[in-house]
């Protein structure tokens, strides 16, 4: 539960969301990510750290370079998190719809 | 039925927006919310009070699979028949703060309609806490159990 809440805090920040959107397109080095922002490299590096700690970014070492990939599984978990709630309403609304349809038909009969 | 319920929980706003299209005239969709005896059937809850008017109150009681009773209640702030209502929503005996809920009913064609529910929470944290699985799952289980009981008794 605690970890999950951290993930939500991680993606609540607009800079971190922008980083996720960028690495979703292609894996990037921390330097290349920092170039896209006006903030200092140190600030961006802090954001990358938060995202990595929440398993939203995966680090890969290629030779002397480090690149970051998007960890899709984690984002999927976030989407799954809404699913039980959505499913509950979907079932209720299905029931509402069929109930009202049968009332409507009874009236017409 | 291909119509599906859409739920959006924007990560930077303390709200949840639920949308659903129905193959029902808007009057019938609204009636499902307005009439206690109908609401009880599809919500799987007991309606203790439902005063559909400005400054009216509402109170529902749901029994979970273990037989525990849960009370939900609030105040109705605005009620425009066939069109919309605004209410507060609170769960008794929990530390969840009250929510503000907007229900808007729209006619799409004479035979179809759309419902938008907008729930506003005290904070993003409270919203996420509510969305976190056990609550939604628990209510869903209660709902399914009641459904089974009702079907078995017919």
Automatic annotation (TrEMBL), chain A:
<protein>
    <submittedName>
        <fullName>ArsR family transcriptional regulator</fullName>
    </submittedName>
</protein>
<dbReference type="GO" id="GO:0003700">
    <property type="term" value="F:DNA-binding transcription factor activity"/>
</dbReference>
<dbReference type="InterPro" id="IPR001845">
    <property type="entry name" value="HTH_ArsR_DNA-bd_dom"/>
</dbReference>
<dbReference type="InterPro" id="IPR011991">
    <property type="entry name" value="ArsR-like_HTH"/>
</dbReference>
<feature type="domain" description="HTH arsR-type">
    <location>
        <begin position="1"/>
        <end position="90"/>
    </location>
</feature>
<dbReference type="InterPro" id="IPR036388">
    <property type="entry name" value="WH-like_DNA-bd_sf"/>
</dbReference>
<dbReference type="InterPro" id="IPR036390">
    <property type="entry name" value="WH_DNA-bd_sf"/>
</dbReference>
<dbReference type="Pfam" id="PF12840">
    <property type="entry name" value="HTH_20"/>
</dbReference>
UniProtKB/TrEMBL annotation, chain B:
<dbReference type="InterPro" id="IPR023393">
    <property type="entry name" value="START-like_dom_sf"/>
</dbReference>
<comment type="similarity">
    <text>Belongs to the AHA1 family.</text>
</comment>
<dbReference type="Pfam" id="PF08327">
    <property type="entry name" value="AHSA1"/>
</dbReference>
<protein>
    <submittedName>
        <fullName>ATPase</fullName>
    </submittedName>
</protein>
<feature type="domain" description="Activator of Hsp90 ATPase homologue 1/2-like C-terminal">
    <location>
        <begin position="24"/>
        <end position="149"/>
    </location>
</feature>
<dbReference type="InterPro" id="IPR013538">
    <property type="entry name" value="ASHA1/2-like_C"/>
</dbReference>
């Amino acid at each position: 539960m605690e970890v999950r809440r951290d993930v939500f805090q991680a993606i609540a920040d607009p800079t971190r969301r922008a980083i996720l959107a960028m690495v979703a397109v292609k894996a990037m080095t921390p330097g290349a990510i920092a170039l896209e922002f006006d903030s200092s490299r140190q600030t961006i590096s802090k954001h990358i750290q938060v995202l990595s700690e929440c398993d939203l970014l995966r680090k890969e070492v290629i030779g002397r370079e480090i690149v970051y990939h998007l960890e899709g599984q984690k984002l999927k978990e976030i989407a799954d998190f809404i699913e039980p709630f959505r499913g509950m309403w979907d079932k209720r609304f299905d029931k509402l719809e069929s109930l009202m349809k049968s009332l409507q038909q009874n009236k017409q009969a | 039925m291909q119509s599906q319920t859409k739920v959006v929980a924007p990560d930077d706003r303390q709200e949840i927006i639920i949308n659903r299209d129905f193959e029902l005239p808007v009057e019938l969709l609204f009636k499902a919310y307005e009439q206690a005896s109908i609401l009880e059937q599809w919500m799987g809850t007991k309606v203790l009070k439902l005063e559909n008017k400005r400054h009216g109150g509402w109170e529902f009681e749901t029994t979970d699979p273990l037989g525990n009773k849960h009370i939900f209640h609030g105040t109705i702030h605005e009620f425009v028949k066939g069109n919309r209502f605004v209410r507060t929503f609170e769960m008794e005996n929990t530390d969840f703060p009250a929510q503000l809920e907007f229900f808007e009913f729209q006619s799409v064609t004479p035979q179809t309609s759309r419902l938008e529910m907008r729930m506003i929470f005290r904070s993003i944290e409270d919203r996420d806490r509510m969305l976190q699985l056990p609550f939604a799952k628990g209510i869903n289980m209660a709902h399914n159990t009641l459904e089974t009981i009702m079907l078995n008794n017919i």
